[in-house]
């Protein structure tokens, strides 16, 4: 009996793993993710996937449906963040459930082009923290 309980306890984390760990991340996927408390219902979209010899897969995502305080926005809130380059670990730590597919966010292209130029010059990298923390970082940065 005690052995069965230990086996059950050992297997519990496997039973509660997110769908993200069992999925391959692909362009066009829309995922729910671990959001900040005020961003529930927000989703992330994988616009593009690139590969770098040092960093591995680089996922260019958009985050939609957030409530980022932004003193420069007309109503004081930004709801869509068009481009973040992130690691696979960021998606594994953040993504919860595949909720659909979508064409790329057209607004990501400008951010991607700017990032790509800086990245190739060795002046830019990728995020390796969870998406909710990236959103927090952006909120703090735009309000400085």
Notes on the structure:
By secondary structure, this protein is of the alpha+beta class. Strands 4-3-2-1-5 form a five-stranded antiparallel β-sheet. The protein is globular and about 40 Å long. About 10% of the residues have low confidence.
Topology:
Blueprint: H1 2-15, H2 19-22, E1 29-33, E2 43-52, E3 56-69, E4 77-87, H3 88-94, E5 95-101, H4 108-120, H5 131-142
Antiparallel strand pairs: 1-2, 1-5, 2-3, 3-4
Features of this protein?
144 residues, alpha+beta, 5-stranded antiparallel β-sheet, 5 helices, 5 strands, 33% strand
Low-confidence stretches: 4-18
The helix-and-strand class reads: alpha+beta
Order of helices and strands: HHEEEEHEHH
Q: Write down the overall geometry.
A: globular
E-strand count: 5
In DSSP terms (H or I, runs of 4 or more residues), the helix count works out at 5
Please give the share of residues in helix.
Answer: 25-40%
Terminal Cα span: 59 Å
For the biggest sheet, the summary is:
5 strands, antiparallel
Multimerization status: single chain
Rg to the nearest angstrom? 17 Å
What value does the average pLDDT take? 88
Strand order, biggest sheet? 4-3-2-1-5
Strand content: 25-35%
């Amino acid at each position: 009996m005690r052995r069965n309980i230990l086996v059950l306890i050992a297997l519990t984390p496997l039973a509660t793993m997110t769908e993200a760990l069992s999925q391959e991340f692909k362009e066009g996927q829309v995922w729910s993710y671990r959001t900040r408390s005020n961003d529930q219902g927000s989703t992330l979209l994988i616009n593009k996937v690139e590969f770098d010899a040092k960093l591995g897969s680089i996922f260019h995502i958009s985050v939609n449906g957030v409530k980022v305080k932004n003193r420069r926005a007309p109503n004081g809130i930004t709801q869509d963040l068009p481009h973040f380059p992130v690691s696979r670990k960021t998606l594994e730590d953040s993504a919860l459930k595949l909720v659909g597919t979508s064409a790329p966010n057209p607004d990501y292209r400008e951010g991607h082009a700017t990032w790509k130029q800086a990245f190739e010059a060795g002046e830019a990298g990728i995020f390796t923290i969870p998406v909710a923390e990236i959103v927090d970082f952006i909120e703090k940065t735009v309000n400085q």
